[in-house]
């Protein structure tokens, strides 16, 4: 089965429109319809419910969706690996959750690339759920997260820590409950458990990305738990202030990989560079 058929299926499922999918894929709408029909004929079932101005996945289509994602990822991954094999390079794909990327990995990724000359590094930001799934199906080599991922097939190694501070645009903002703009940044399950036990105020916004939280409070005023390295320049300029907090603000960073990963030794080498 041509990979383009699965890519077309994923695009239609994403935009819920054959015409928009054809525009995004730079093919005709007839070609989109033909590829979907090819899949439906192959699986002998309908994959989309077509109603006026509404296209949605059938139950069979929803089940195929996760497999189609894995197929596209695996074929793309294998094609790149085969290309690199001609130059004796090894591809290592690494993904971090948005918060860990902002707080920990962003500052070291350039150094890793410059030192790891024996590998080609693929780096991206992804959700915890996607990282978990791709580690299991081996389309991802390394996940970097603030909480370990449980599973007999996975290995979690603590590679470092980062410090959070409660940063605010106003030293007295915690006492202004009626006008208090608080942005809750998701720093992992352990953080959220401690946070909810300590703080009772309702956030105006929730995000997985520290930089989004920073932009929001700088624009609108308010507070958020942010990495000390990220807020330090704004503290020095007097745009942000550090507030006292009883929350444990030393967070751990874990590197997770599949124990049967073929690039185990290369991964261990990269761990040393991250540690």
From TrEMBL:
Signal peptide residue numbers: none
InterPro entries cross-referenced by the UniProt entry = LysR_HTH_N (IPR000847), LysR_subst-bd (IPR005119), WH-like_DNA-bd_sf (IPR036388), WH_DNA-bd_sf (IPR036390)
Q: Where is the HTH lysR-type domain?
A: 1-58
For this UniProt record, the keywords arranged alphabetically read as follows: DNA-binding, Transcription, Transcription regulation
**Would you say which domain of life the source belongs to?**
Bacteria
GO terms assigned for molecular function:
DNA-binding transcription factor activity; transcription cis-regulatory region binding
Q: Which Pfam families match?
A: HTH_1, LysR_substrate
Identify its protein family: Belongs to the LysR transcriptional regulatory family.
Q: What is this protein called?
A: LysR family transcriptional regulator
Q: Identify the species of origin.
A: Saccharobesus litoralis
